[in-house]
Design a protein that fits this description.
Elements (H helix, E strand, L loop, with lengths): L3 H20 L11 H10 L12 H17 L4 H24 L11 H21 L4 H13 L29 H10 L11 H23 L8 H15 L4 H21 L4 H12 L4 H18 L1 H5 L6 E5 L5 E5 H8 L4
Antiparallel strand pairs: 1-2
Helix pairs in contact: 1-2, 3-5, 4-5, 8-9, 8-10, 9-10, 10-11, 10-14
InterPro entries: MazG-like_dom
Pfam families: MazG (PF03819)
Protein name: NTP pyrophosphohydrolase MazG-like domain-containing protein
Amino acid sequence: MENLEDVKKIFYKGLKIQADLKEKGMSLTYQTMSEDMARLTCQLFPKSPDNPDGYRPFSLKQKELKKWQLANFGDSNSSDMTLGMAEEVGELAHWILKRKQGIREGANGGDFKDEISDAFADVVIYGIQLLSDEGLDAEEAFTKTVAKVLNRNWKENPSGKDESQHKKTEPKPEGRLLTVAEEHELRQEWGKLPEDTRPSWRNYWLQAQRDLTASICKAQEQEGRELKPGEGRLLTDMKVIIDERTKNCVDANYASVKENLEWLVAKTASILETEWEHHVDHIVENTKILERAECKARVKRIFEEIEEHYQTFDRAGNPIILLDYKGADGSRKVTNFWQALREGAMKK
């Protein structure tokens, strides 16, 4: 194709072929036309609903080589192709050695590029024919292997072997409360066993979220209507949960745990459309340690710290909690707690 008119003719011919096939309810595949026309159409339409794989040069060449092989040498087997490929690899090595030794020059000078190129192409041809005999697709095999190679870190893993079974990695949090025995075992295994082996505030905090959700659902069932934090025994339940989940923590962590759980109560109230200021007042009233502005500032700071602490856990796709409750219109609502915090907790 040396001029624009030739390109236009081929392009419109491809369009007509595609339109005719669609009218007949047929898909544009390699089987519905000659291989030459299939190659042309795939080049004109690299990717389309009828041709999701796009142009596949390896697959087309593989079919052509198989026909050529049968026409010239009859049937063959994998052993023949393997021996032929080994011979061509030797030929490739032969020309590279000649160039290194400087014994003589190639057809086009001392670089032997033509000879090396020809030998390499023969190696590839034998390899493609070998895959044909094994019933494998050359393009698929090449694409998969290239993807694996590109994903390997050769500096950290020169052997290319999968060392995931031997390499220690930190276990991903499962979003449940670890028992004392479990945490003790984990810390021993990973060499991080401190003097105190009781569950950390993080695990208490995760479990408290579940307790809060259960408390909300239970209270709503008993009352037969939607309840908001601050109403009746629901607030009491939340305060009990806070005390229950913090009483076993070490003294140094007690204040941090309590602050985070009080923050959780306030945020739950915000998600369930309860007045933010109203619930902050409840917290201030019960603790008698903070003014409203200071409490808001502390809540914001805790929110930022928790967000940073849970980034990996959040990206792993494990939602911290789902709040399941009835909306004002009586419909059931399920809110991703963490997403709700990120989107609207600090609006007020």
